[in-house]
Design brief:
Belongs to the MYG1 family. This is Metal-dependent protein hydrolase. InterPro entries: MYG1_exonuclease. It comes from Pseudocohnilembus persalinus (Ciliate). It holds the Pfam family MYG1_exonuc. This protein has ten helices and ten strands. By secondary structure, it is of the alpha/beta class. It folds into two domains: 210 residues, no CATH class; 124 residues, no CATH class. The strands form two sheets. It has a five-stranded mixed β-sheet. Helix 3 runs antiparallel to helix 4, helix 4 crosses helix 6 and helix 6 packs across helix 8. The longest helix has 39 residues.
């Protein structure tokens, strides 16, 4: 490639953030038009005017000219896709809105070139790209947008019980130059941050593509068969362990059974006869819809647990009551039904 044909992307100098680092990764790694483009970090408007694309600086949002800033007072844009119409976009969100499907498709291609699947995945199904695009925004990009724009995840009257300092944004932010250290250069540190953003993006897509997306029809089938498991319809059974919760809430809403599923039963491993029983959380909460029985929780002595529960091959129950295990399906099923009965009795009191 001739040097004069290399496109140039402008973004701001100074302290860098999770959004423009991710935006630059998406453009330079996963788009045809800007692959391997040169990144120029500046706030000089005359230099920015010469760029092929400008993101997160410049005070202008004009996609027809490839200007993607969100800092100007007039900007209130959101993804405007499905339910994602509330969180104001950052530089990353703007690039995702205009280039995201190309980015996701290229990341998918990269992932599939490096794995051997044991399931059938119809990569030509247009719904696959749509669903992964939406999932990755909801599980990753929306938080980047919200944090960069100062949007609180929860109501401001709620005080957090602890701080979380190892998330994606924190891992990018810590690579900014250190005031007490000589010799660190902003642009060098920015380049060090880009592989972290790329790794996070790829793993978000990988998780959505290989774990989340193929699980949806399995969870849907389990929901349709729930009355064959137990007359209450509150217990679902899976023949393999797959991600449940992220699909469950959406599917419950689609089937008009919101909040009705209390437990999921699934085998411990591929060749294992042991089973697990997992209590379902309230959406976006650690609180459980129906925990396992109080008197079983946190007992380390298996013999004592057997005597209290009267279940011969019970193995454990977590102290919070969110999960338990037994050496057979029948016993795991009994753990769920007895726990349902306990909550029913408590409500009647």
């Amino acid at each position: 490639m001739e040097q004069e044909n290399i496109k140039k992307i402008g973004t701001h100098s100074g302290c860098f953030h999770a959004d423009e680092v991710l935006a630059c990764v998406m453009l330079t790694k996963y788009t045809k038009d800007y692959k391997d483009a040169e990144i120029i970090r500046t706030r000089d408007s005359q230099i920015l005017d010469q760029m092929d694309l400008v993101v997160d600086v410049g005070g202008v949002y004009e996609p027809e000219r490839h200007r993607y800033d969100h800092h100007q007072k007039s900007f209130t844009g959101t993804l405007e896709y499905d339910k994602y119409d509330k969180t104001k976009l950052s530089g990353a969100g703007l690039i995702y809105k205009h280039f995201g499907k190309e980015v996701i498709q290229n990341v998918i291609n990269e992932i599939l070139s490096d794995v051997k699947l044991k399931i059938k995945l119809d990569t030509k199904d247009p719904q696959l790209l749509e669903q992964i695009y939406k999932k990755v925004y909801g599980s990753f990009l929306e938080a980047v947008d919200g944090i960069d724009n100062g949007v609180n995840q929860y109501s401001t009257d709620l005080k957090p019980n602890y701080r979380e300092t190892t998330n994606y944004g924190a891992r990018i932010g810590r690579l900014n130059t250190t005031w007490s250290v000589e010799g660190e250069e902003e642009d060098v540190q920015f380049k060090k941050a880009m592989p972290i953003a790329q790794e996070e993006l790829v793993w978000q897509v990988r998780n959505a593509l290989l774990k989340w997306y193929p699980a949806r029809p399995i969870v849907l089938e389990a929901l349709k068969n729930r009355f064959n498991v137990h007359e209450s319809g509150a217990i679902i059974k899976l023949d393999q362990s797959v991600p449940v919760d992220s699909h469950l809430y959406d599917l419950e809403e689609e089937l008009n059974i919101k909040g009705q599923i209390k437990f999921v039963l699934f085998p411990e491993g591929v060749n294992s006869k042991a089973w697990r029983v997992k209590a379902i959380n309230l959406e976006n909460s650690f609180e459980l819809r129906n925990p396992l029985k109080k008197e079983w929780r946190g007992i380390k002595d298996i013999q004592q647990l057997k005597e209290i529960s009267k279940i011969d091959d019970i193995v454990f129950v977590h102290v919070s009551g969110f999960i338990g295990g037994a050496r057979s399906y029948e016993s795991a099923f009994k753990m769920a039904t007895l726990s349902l009965e306990e909550q029913k009795e408590e409500k009647q009191q």
